[in-house]
Design brief:
Layout: H1 10-13, H2 21-33, H3 35-43, E1 56-59, E2 64-67, E3 72-73, H4 75-79, H5 84-87, E4 91-96, E5 103-107, H6 108-124, E6 132-136, H7 141-153, E7 156-159, H8 166-176, E8 180-184, E9 187-189, E10 192-194, H9 196-204, E11 211-215, E12 229-231, H10 232-237, E13 248-249, E14 253-259, E15 267-272, H11 273-287, E16 295-298, H12 305-318, E17 321-325, H13 336-344, E18 346-351, H14 353-360, H15 365-368, E19 377-381, H16 387-397, E20 403-407, E21 441-444, E22 450-451, E23 456-462, E24 472-473, H17 477-485, E25 492-500, E26 506-511, E27 515-518, E28 521-524, H18 525-533, E29 538-548, E30 552-561, H19 570-584, E31 593-596, H20 610-617, H21 634-646
Parallel strand pairs: 4-17, 6-7, 6-8, 7-14, 8-11, 11-12, 16-17, 16-18, 18-19, 19-20, 30-31
Antiparallel strand pairs: 1-2, 3-13, 4-5, 9-10, 14-15, 15-24, 21-22, 21-23, 23-25, 25-26, 27-28, 29-30
Helix pairs in contact: 2-3, 6-7, 8-9, 11-12, 14-16
The structure holds 5'-O-(acetylsulfamoyl)adenosine.
5'-O-(acetylsulfamoyl)adenosine is lined by residues 259, 304-306, 381-384, 406-411, 432, 494-496, 508, 510-511, 517, 522.
Amino acid sequence: MSDRIVPTKPHISRRAHVASFDHYQRLYRESVDDPSGFWRRQAERIDWFHPFERACEQDFDRAEVAWYLGGKLNAAFNCIDRHLVERGEQNAIVWVGDEPGTYRQITFRELHDRVGRLANVLRRHGVQKGDRVCIYLPMIPEAVYAMLACARIGAVHSVVFAGFSAESLKNRIEDADCRVVLTANEGLRGGKTIPLKQTVDQAIEDLPVRTVLVARRTDAAVPMRAGRDLWLADEMERQRAYCPVQWQDSEDPLFVLYTSGSTGKPKGQLHTTGGYLVYAGYTHQLVFDWHPGDVHFCAADIGWVTGHSYVVYGPLANGATTVLFESTPVYPDASRYWQVCDDVQAAIFYTAPTALRALLRFGDEPVKKYRRDSIRVLGSVGEPINPEVWQWYHDVVGEGRCAVVDTWWQTETGGILISALPGATPCKPGSATFPLPGVRPVLVDEHGEVLTGDGVSGNLCLAGSWPGQARTIWNDHERFRQTYFTTYPGLYFTGDGCRRDEDGYYWITGRVDDVLNVAGHRLGTAEIESALVAHEFCAEAAVVGFPHDVKGTGIQAYVIPGKAADGVPPEEIEAVLKQQVRKAIGPIATPDRIQIVPGLPKTRSGKIMRRILRKIGEANYQDLGDISTLAEPHVVELIVQGHKAAR
Ligand code: 7RM
């Protein structure tokens, strides 16, 4: 490999938790030689009400994993109460409102008060241990209070991204059988309001939701249904601040979080208490080289797993000040992130490549308007980062002084698994570099053979469990087993392709299943297809990804129009179907391109040949492979012509 190596920086190594590559290798060796000892020691970073007995039990054939068996703890206690003595007056949260200059500081003591009240509100409305509570809130402190309030009383939160449509929200509330929903009258993002309460009303029309607690984010009046809808602030006012902690078993559920897979139905990933919290704390400290006093700014939304682990649980478990950012990278202009970094004096900044690609288009000026001299570590997550973008992040945003960490992980993994460590890992831009201590990646070829040695490419699997691993899919353990543990028996299969280069560096090459990564968000092609065919204008649909400058992957849909579309102009069919997907899933799933086609390339058994559609979507018309086995080979030529005409 001729890839340039960016060496570690002495001023970062000097104070880093892992101070050199040798040190990393030593830790790594220890962790694989004695995993149980290693993970026992990591568990000491949190407070246990009752000590655990065994570190881990795992049986990948049955998809059974449990960590810190017999231990009792509480995630909210670990994120709040245990910090009160030493850092009660330190900021736990710095909230950054949408309008520039809007900040609110919440100390650990205030957090304790707010979370206690909200927990008492939930109890008052009948929420008990094990009950699921849906959180459909914008990036406001109440969202964090709500998550921690659930954790405090042993309820299971299901946060749904506030950009999802009524239909998506409904499916998630229904699947997890939530009886209580928290929302806001409206959200506010990039100067625009989002009608959250209205969306909730639509979503729960036919569902047995008993209570809707509404936070007031704007002055907008919204309809409140008597006996069901209540203002959250009034309810909190009515409760005392003290709420006793419910000690949970290590394996009691902490949350479900829905994520897209290769089928039409999103999967509720279930994370449990002990292992998840240890892993979130461990990775937050190591990967971002967090030290007491450092302000941690992760720009992700709490609707995604990155927000769960690196806005809320990881930083707060460690006693960090965490930034809760309500706005967008470009509001009011492309310097917003850097302005916030200066204002809050962030030591760590974490975002997705899609945001960086969008900012790069504005050049260096907006970056240079601010000092950024508080930043020490810059993180990237969600999709492969192009080497040029990595370099810009390092050279321009970080002025060559900061460590850049490209962090690979998934909703299913609970926390980061493959990443450079600041001060320890020499980087190759574009590579996530090496596994964290305790993590054992394995590459497997299409026949299921494990690829040993360096300079190999295959499907990325993990040998052995780690504490942050999801334990099941809500209400569907068999699907969990099927999806992750049957492709390569004895291994967890990630769904990603990967190369391990001659020097042992890992390069994630993207999904190998029917999952698209659009602007760092996971979407199943099947999900978008079922949204399309739900409309009478669409008889059949096939969705593929294509390379997109900002989003990484754009969405291309090939659509066979339905009878109802006879005589309707193609532009109108396109517009209607785009709107249909927005409504069914949310704006992030809107196809960038819809091509009306007379037929789809199918095998004689009726399977759509996506490989061909992907090639056409990339405007790679030469190399379509063998199409002679198709049921109607001539449709390929028609689709190619249509695609060329549209470009
Ligand atoms: C955290 C998160 C997971 C999928 C994963 C990959 C892709 C994530 C990176 C990455 C290359 C990275 N959870 N992915 N991080 N690809 N380099 N650093 O994103 O469940 O929403 O998505 O995202 O394909 O399987 S997720």
